[in-house]
Amino acid sequence: MSDDRASHGSFTARLLGSVGELPAGEWDALTDGTNPFVSHAFLTAMEQSRSVGARSGWTPVPIVIDGPDGRLAAALPAYLKDHSQGEYVFDHTWADAWHRAGGAYYPKLQIAVPFTPATGPRLLTPHPELAPALLRAAETLCRENGLSSAHATFIEPGQVSVFEDAGWLMREDIQFHWENRGYASFDDFLEALSSRKRKDLRKERAKAQEGVEIRSFTGAEIEEAHWDAFWEFYQDTGARKWGRPYLTREAFSLLGETMADKVLLVMAFIEGEAVAGALNFIGGEALYGRYWGARIDKPFLHFELCYYQAIDAAIALGLARVEAGAQGGHKLARGYEPVRTVSAHYIVHDGLRAAIADYLEQERAGIALDQMSLGAHSPFRKGED
Predict the structure, then answer these.
(1) Residue ranges of the chain assigned to CATH 3.40.630.30
(2) Which PANTHER family does the annotation name (predicted)?
(3) What three-state secondary structure class fits 188?
């Protein structure tokens, strides 16, 4: 990979080998601090734990722009990928089609937080005028190093227009988020649902909690024994979903060491033994549900730990929403509503770009219909209850 160094006025863009090469204070100063996943602590925990790197197929290549004073002025969290795993925006069909046409889809550039389908900033800078320069640097990296494409996933709404203005192909999908409409308690939230759904949720919570003690841990309350138990749960879920867990055991310890105040670990116990757990991250505006696992099969325990406890926590913390991760139409019945997520794609080859553009046009119409259909099945009250 060549040393991609390009000047943009009085600013210089360059390519690094890790986020860890940069001072934490300078990196974190590029954001408003509300999204935990683009923090220096989270991204370096992925690097130091070897969750990203050679074994994973996620090679860190952050693109940064230095200001005239030599300090960091802008950055892209970026990775070279030799596969399409752990992204949650699926482009396997694009890769297969390009390979059949004789092209090489991999390596590609992924502008994202590894293994994390949560909306957030991808253009990290307090200087909006530098955002287009970051994208030009990513495009230059692709063209000059034989990369097929660059992909920015789960872009926060306020940054979408920058990618559109740069001519990147835009793609939409649907996630399910819970919105806090000023609720004072879980019961207050339930009152906004239809009577049938309200009864269903109360029954589910009662069955899930029967014979189970549920406790939440954050900050210094989280001990290595908790991480040991959660690692067991996580491995089981990871093996069933992905074939191999994305995060190493060390990643959880590092997250506990460096950002425990941003972690909410919800665990279920039976007779003092941990039997299930859900890992959440606390942002400035949202609670982000990430991983879950269990060593028992208890009805509705998954919903209780991942969805209802998250709602309880968001209300208590005064957060605006809960983002419960990718996919899962079953979340709709539990008060999580369909919202649009957006990704952006820069395709180097004109022919491949044209084919993907046609594909996205057709896909976009289907996504719009899906969102309309899902909205019609909302559990919230419509007129008279």
Answers:
(1) 6-173+339-376, 181-319
(2) ACYL-COA
(3) helix
**The two structure tokens encoding residue 217:** 């841990």
Confidence at 92, pLDDT banded by 50, 70, 90: very high
**CATH superfamily placement of domain 6-173+339-376:** Gcn5-related N-acetyltransferase (GNAT) (3.40.630.30)
Q: If phi over 0 gives left and psi between -120 and 50 gives alpha, with beta otherwise, what is residue 383? A: left
Tell me the one-letter amino acid at 156. E
181-319: in CATH 3.40.630.30:
yes
Q: How many CB atoms lie within 10 A of CB 319?
A: 19
User: Which of 20, 118, 25, 23 is CA-nearest to residue 62?
Assistant: 20
Task: Write down the pTM of the prediction.
Answer: 0.93
Answer with the residue of higher pLDDT: 378 or 217: 217
- Per the prediction, the chain carries an average pLDDT of 92
Could you tell me the CA-to-CA distances from 123 to 5, 32, 148, 160, 251 in Å, in that order? 18, 12, 21, 10, 25
Per-residue pLDDT band at 8 (split at 50, 70, 90): very low
> In which order are the strands placed within the sheet that holds 72-76?
6-8, 11-15, 63-66, 72-76
